[in-house]
Structure formats: C-alpha cells, structure tokens
Amino acid sequence: MKSLGIFRRSFAPWADPNAKPFISFRNVTKRFGDFTAVDNLSLDIYTREFFALLGGSGCGKSTLLRMLAGFEQPTSGEIMLDGQSLSGIPPYRRPVNMMFQSYALFPHMSVEKNIAFGLKQDGMPKTEIAERVAQMLKLVKLEAFAARKPHQLSGGQRQRVALARSLAKRPKVLLLDEPLGALDKKLREETQFELMDLQYELGLTFVVVTHDQEEAMTMSDRIAVMSHGRVIQVATPAEIYEAPNSRFVAEFIGDVNMIEGKVALEDGRSILRTAEGISVALPETLAEGQSVALAVRPEKLKVSRQQPEGAGVHAMRGEIWDIAYFGDMTVFHVKLPSGKIVKASSLNATRGVEDPFGYDEQIWVSFEPQAGIVLKG
Amino acid sequence: MQRAISAVTRRLVILIPYGWLLFFFLIPFLIVLRISMSTSAVAMPPYTPVFDWSEGWARIRSALSELSFDNYVWLAGDPLYLNAYLSSLWIALVSTALTLLIAYPMAYGMAKAPTTLRPTLVMLVILPFWTSFLIRVYAWIGILKPEGLFNQFLLSMGVIREPLIILNTNWAIYIGIVYCYLPFMVLPLYSALEKMDHSLTEAALDLGCTPIQAFWRVTFPLSLPGVIAGCLLVFIPAVGEFVIPDLLGGSETLMIGRTLWNEFNGNRDWPVSSAVAVVLLLLLVVPIMLFQTAQARAERAEREGR
C-alpha cells in the first residue's frame, strides 16, 4: 500500500499504541434544552498536536471547544486533561487559554495591558511581566504598537494581539475559535503559516475550530470532521482527503465525483457495478444489490481523445459539457451517456496546448484502478 | 441648484435645535441674570430698574448702569445660602451614590436577562412615569409616616416596638430621590451594559479572573460612561430638587431649591432668588462643561496618537 498524501509525517503519536492522550473527551454529551449540541462524543488529542475541529455551523465544534475552556459543562461524560478530570474546574483554574473568534480584546486597555492582563492576574512580579510582554510583542511583531488601544489597530494586528494575549500565560493548550475567520484571504494564508511555525516553536498543543476546510487541511496534524454533534472521521488531512470514511466526509472536503452502483457477485467475490459499466472489486463482502458509490476526486480523472490503455484502467465515453478555466488548472465537466456529469481537472502545466479540447467534443474519461474509493453510507 | 437647496435645508434643520435653545434656554437665562442684578422693590414687577423702551436710548443706558452685583455679594455674605448650597450638594451626592448602588445590580440583571424578556423589563422601569410625580411622592408620606405602612409592617413583624421616625428627616429625602430618579440611573447603565460583548467577560475568566475580579477589571470600567451619564442625570436635578424635600423633608432640612422658593414666594425677592438660581447653574454647569471638554480633548489626543 502506498502512503496517502505526498509528505512524510514524522510526528504521529496517534499511531503509537503506547502514547497517552493529552486531552480526552470521554462519551461527552451536551444538551441545550431539546437541542443536542454534542452527542456522546469521544476523542483523543495528543501533546504538541495541531488539532482541527472541522464542520459546518451548528455541528457542535464550538461547543466542544467551550467545554474544554470551561465556559460550558458537559451534560454527561468527562473531559480529561493531562490525566486529570476537568469536571467542576472553572475556566479561571484551567491551564488552557483561548483565542476568541471576535478576539475579545479589552477596549479600555492598551495592547501592552491586554497582553499583561493574565499575568497580572496571576500576581507575577512587575519586572517579569514587562519582560514577558516584550517577548510576546516580539513574537507577534507588534513592538511598535504596545501603547495603542485595540480600536487603533487593523484586523490583522488585533488578531496578533489576541494571539499574544492567549499565549502570554504559556498555557498547556491553546484553543483557537475560528482564528483567521475575520481576516481577508491573503492575510489568512500568510497567518496560517505563522500559526503553524509558532505552534512548532513553542511546542504547544493547539486545538482549532474552523469551518474552512482549506485552513484545516493546511495547518493541522489531524482533523476531526464533525456533523450533528458527532465526529464522523478523525484522521490526517491526507487520509481525510484520499480515504474518506463516508459520503459526508468525501463531499465535505474538496470536490468529488460520486459514481453510483450496486453490489454484484462474481466468482464468489463482491464487486461494484456502476451504471457506466465500470466494475471494481470490493475489499469486503457486501450483500448483493446493496447501493454503494465509487468516489473519485476530479484530479484523478483524466480526459483523453484516445481510449486509454493500461491494466485495470477504468474508462468511460463522454462529451465535454462545460469547461471551467481557473488559470492554474482547468475543470472539464463531462456528460456521460447515463446523463451524469463528472468533473475532471487537469493542471495547466504548460503555457501552450497543442490541440485543445472544445465544447461538445466526444472524449474518454479514465482513472487508475486505485484512484477511487468505495463508500457505503 | 439642487445642491444649494440641500445646503439651505441642512442649515434650517440645524437651526431648529439652536432656535429652541436660544428661545427656551438662553433668553430666559439672560432675563434671570438681568433680574438677579436688579434691586428689589415694592412695585410691579417687584424689582428696579425696569427697561422701558418707550423712553428712548438714554433711559435704557441709565437703567443698565443701575445693574449691579450687590445681590451676589449679599449671597456670599449670608451663611444661610452657603449652607443651603453645601447641604444640597451633600444630599444630592448621597442620593446619587445610593441610586447607583441600587440601579447597578438592576441594570446588570436586565442586561443579562433573556433577550425576549428585556423589553418588558425596560417597560417596567419606566412604568412609574405613567403616574404623576407628585402623587408618587405623596404616596411615600403614607408609607413613611409614624403610623404608615412601613412602620406598621415592622411593628407587626416585631422588629421594632416604637415607630421609626423617617418622615421629615433626611432619610425620607434620600428615599424619595432614590425612588424618583432610579429610572434615570438604570436606563443609561442598562444601555452601557447591554451592548457589552459577553466574550470580554469570558476572556477575563479565561485569563484567570474569578467572576468578581472579571467584573471589577472589565465589566465595571467598560460601563463607566453609563455610570457617569446616570450620575449626572440624577445628581443635577437632585441638587435643585424642591418637591421631594418640601414634602418629605423636615423643617430644618436646608436645600437650595427650597431656599429659592422661599425667597421668591415668601419674601417676594425676585432679584435675590434669581441670583441664587444663577449661582446654582454656574455651580452645576461649569464643572460639567469642564469635565466634558477635558474628556473630548483626551479622546482627540488618543485618536491623533495613532
């Protein structure tokens, strides 16, 4: 089996059966009246991990983070931090700090005072506070803005102050609620890498809540994809993308072609037959006639004029229905004889193309035997 | 053309409030100021000189020269007035402090109440205004007098044996002022607390504050504009309050509103009572204006500091 994704991860405590989780959610449920925000959820997060909770609004990701911070108490279940139960411990006695989505900077205090807030509260000596604040200002490159009030800063600068304030107390875990949500696209991309570098340098555990899949994919070691208060899949970004465990995950992350089919029996083994005449061997035995889907990512579909050759390559005839040109790549919408439209993307690796495809052209779309993943649910 | 018209309309719109202030504040004030510089007389009106425009410019000029600051000198010379001023300031100060102490928890509770409940609570706060002010003050006489509701309640509970003397003391004045001016304190406090971002409190808790510390370090400082507005709204009218001390206070209660009333109606000394009113105005308005200019300057300096 080839490894999924294109880079090697040396940090993978979740794969080590002897590693102790740093944060553990154990059968945690949270109800608000009739609404179940978090539903019997169990999850382990390890030291120094950059962990993302990803999902649409109302999926329970923020509630999970707020329970970790201590602003909400679980209705049932337990949250453990470093081997100790957090139940009954108020937010001000937890060794975690949070960066709020709105930043929640104190408007009546200067940048410096905002950062020093938590330290002063802990009764740290004045000289040490000054030292730590200077260090934090340097870390977020805001030395020149120490005396300003929050309303005199730009959005990006406020985000940095919020970060510095939440890091100043050197928490064991930093919780980030949509940390880049209020920034514009360009700044967001830059800041993603700064956050990653910071997390690595400080050796902290980051738990970040986000609805932005690209952000989660770029920054995190592992992602928990959530829906309706449950975790659907917890895995590395590459696993989430290349080996989603359900239709929900496959469709939530990136673009995907779902080629529907039914289970058939051939030589005593289960295979998947699709309406387009493709048959794929199934890794497990399934009931005959069961509906399953083959998920193929657009970049794994290839468009060609000649019928593709090669052992096990699946090929379908189709007609180019739409072409979306993005500059870096082109997405062909191909209409199959069954009426289904699949997307095939190709990288525009050269500036010129010898004989480009045109609208309504009859072509072949094909994919490698291992390119698709069979999804039941 | 269009633009010219809109510029004219804009001026007109601005003119309305300024006109209001001119006719109903500045001109009456100038009249009071001018009376305060006259001399009392048994006449109609009861002061001289009277400006009579029919007798020409020379007569006006001589009338102007008759104006003097004698009444102000008289005020400064008589300890009665100084004591009345000081006592008024003191009673207003105590009442304002008591009102703040009672109004803050109320406003805080209102701001923390479910959003659907808040309009009802605001309604309840302003509900007393639907009854006449005078009737409400009279009602307090019925409650506070020796054989009143409050004493009967305490007697029947066995807390006291003898009725408490509350009516006609300064305590009755405090109660009356606190009761009457409470909405003026609650509403600005509520509007300051209500718009506060709840995540600020959470951030304070997250950074190690207990809920009480979070209140004093974050919530209270951020509600200060509301506190100041509420205190001014209570303090200023309380200093010149006449009805409450007259109905609830004792004979020895000295308040400037009452002194003024006595000068005006009892002694028929319009010039002296006008002088009392002008001094009261200066005493209240000048510090507030200084405070506001200082605040505006600080804000400007902050904005330019960036």
The CATH topology of chain B: MetI-like fold
Question: Quaternary state, please?
Answer: heterodimer
| Poorly predicted parts of chain A | none
Beta-strand share of residues of chain A = 25-35%
Radius of gyration of chain A: 25 Å
Instruction: Report how far apart the termini of chain B are.
Output: 40 Å
- CATH C-level category of the largest domain in chain A: Alpha Beta
**CATH architecture grouping of chain B:** Orthogonal Bundle
Helix content of chain A: 10-25%
Mean pLDDT of chain A: 91
What is the number of helices of chain A?
8
Q: State the distance separating the first and last CA atoms of chain A.
A: 24 Å
Shape of chain A: globular
- The CATH architecture of the largest domain in chain A is 3-Layer(aba) Sandwich
CATH topology of the largest domain in chain A, by name, is Rossmann fold
Function (chain A): Part of the ABC transporter complex PotABCD involved in spermidine/putrescine import. Responsible for energy coupling to the transport system.
Protein name (chain A): Spermidine/putrescine import ATP-binding protein PotA
Pfam family, one (chain A): TOBE_2
Subunit structure (chain A): The complex is composed of two ATP-binding proteins (PotA), two transmembrane proteins (PotB and PotC) and a solute-binding protein (PotD).
